[in-house]
Specification:
single chain; 133 residues; alpha/beta; five-stranded parallel beta sheet; 20% strand; binds calcium ion
């Protein structure tokens, strides 16, 4: 179990949004990686399992739901905390997201501060050893 700075992976193809989020999370003291498509997200997770994954539902190469199924089927990532990003109106995706085991979701457009509050909440719940001071 890694102690120290939590590592968060953002899987998001909208580059501007990914950059803003990365900046805000780094300001919070997290280590942050960005994957611009679904396949790269899976490759990066295989290299280094993050403490939390922020997963955009609509991704090139592999959709959020495919990624979730893959993650939940593997022992290394079965319990990896995931916050899913959906566009407004994608109700069905949200429900399917919970079925495949996402921990929380945030609807776009979101405020970085809202997402960061959820990141803290999910980490506290899933990785109490990473809880902030
Ligand atoms: Ca997208």
């Amino acid at each position: 179990m890694t102690l120290g700075t939590p590592y968060i992976l953002i899987a998001e193809d909208e580059r501007g949004q990914a950059e803003i989020l990365k900046y805000n999370l780094e300001e919070e003291g997290f280590r942050v990686g960005v994957a611009p498509d679904g396949q790269q997200a899976l490759d990066m997770i295989e290299d280094a399992v993050p403490d939390l994954l922020i997963l955009d539902w609509m991704l090139p190469e592999k959709s959020g739901i495919k990624i979730m199924k893959k993650l939940r089927a593997s022992a290394d990532t079965k319990s990896l905390p995931v916050i899913m990003l959906t566009a407004r109106g994608e109700e069905d995706d949200r429900l399917r997201g919970f079925e495949v085991g996402v921990d929380d979701y945030v609807v776009k457009p979101y405020l970085p501060s809202e997402l960061i509050a959820r990141v803290h909440a999910v980490l506290r719940r899933s990785r109490p050893e990473l809880a902030e001071e």
